[in-house]
Sequence to fold (507 residues):
Amino acid sequence: MLRSTLLSGNGMYSPKGLAWAAVCLVTISTAGCGHRLTGRWEATGRTLDNGEQEKTILELKQSGNQLTGTMKSPGFSIDVKGTANGNHFELFGPRNPTRPFITGELTNGELHGTIGRREWIARPATAADDTPTNPYIQPPALHNVAYNGLAKTPPMGWNSWNLFAGRVDDQTVRSIADAMVTSGMRDAGYIYVNIDDTWEGVRDAQGNIQTNHKFPDMKALAAYVHSKGLKLGIYSGPGPRTCAGYPASYGHEEQDAKTFAAWGIDYLKYDWCSARMIYKDDQLQAVYQKMGDALQATGRPIIYSLCEYGLGDVQKWGANVGGNLWRTTDDIRDQWSSMIGNIEQQAPAAPYAGPGHWNDPDMLEIGNGHMSDDEYRTHMSLWALTAAPLLAGNDIRSMTAATREILLNKEVIAIDQDPLGKQASPQKNGDLETWIKPLAGGSVAVGVVNLGSAPAQATVNARDLNLKGGIGRARDLWTHKDARFANGAYSATVPAHGVLLLKVSAG
Ligand code: GLA
Fold:
């Protein structure tokens, strides 16, 4: 969430920083300068796709070998602390107190270090580094935003972030839209083609948000996507900046909603990010309601996707602000532990999912290459069992046969899209985790996930399925074969990190 904005910033000029740096330069070879890192430091980062330059202001106080301070940009502000040893320093953020996120040296009055693998240089801040702060805007009083009638089943489509991140552009979106049709994704129900962060330009003199050079004509792009029988989604947030450091909708909510509607946008993902610099968690609902109202006022049907990582028990009020789905977790990664962690973390929110309003454990990583096909089958099965939105996050233009077979498994998609809209919850028994989802018409879907690292025997007991009239037909949704219950049970061997997924109808 803070990711690339770590290098962007604003701040205030303090001659003190310069002074300390200068004083300490004189004593740099002696061990005695216990303040030489004290001051305001400005780091210039990348140039964004909209031409803006990323900047960070690091304000540090050194006392002996201890460092404390803040790191700020227009998009984020974090407290930092760390240690200095001679010219060497290490700084830790609030998220990981055991691993420094910057290590570096004081060299010739500059801080030279690395953030991750990126080189990072900070110089004493000057007056020119000062950027205006955002005035506080009081969020509206709470009321219920009427249901927009959309997302009766969990939204399905594609999103650019997981694979393309900042590399998404008009041409990519067009070719993905083409591939959604030719691959059969559209006809399987994947309708929304969603552009995530980094499409944003700067605002014009009237405050209208522009696209950057990667998206020369958003209205024409929407028309193209619509001509393919698909819908177009976009991304913004309630703060002044998006997570990638681009302009977001703070103070421009109605204006942006109108712009999105005029472009022909059908889906908005609205990401909290820098709003945390202005608002507290108990204001989340009012802040999200503001955009919910603005979208409704456009008169265009636009799916409203709240992205605030599950803060403030969003499942309890997401539907009241007009939300059709809401993230319940931090960002997914293409990694077994992240995928399983996300789906388990949202289990307590299960009672709040239903037609029109869904818990969102984040987008799919299927086909992105860092999990096995067994793990991706588990990923797909768990998202279906929990009625999660199915937003593919891979390159639809070049899917392997295995990825295609997983994403396009119509029997599994039907479990996700079941009109009853129930979200399964897990029952753990050693390495096996069983998820049971009641379906419309009295059937159930049952999944048994093998969390262990060796194959295991999974058994589904008929009595646990609570089917009226006992077992009718049972079908294995990955082998596409009927499964025969004997003596009230069905057993199968499940590979490590694999899944057994059955649909069982009543007798
Ligand atoms: C946050 C969201 C991600 C993605 C990025 C874009 O981290 O959780 O899904 O939208 O921002 O910057």
Notes: The chain has ten helices and 26 strands. The first strand starts at residue 39 and ends at 47.
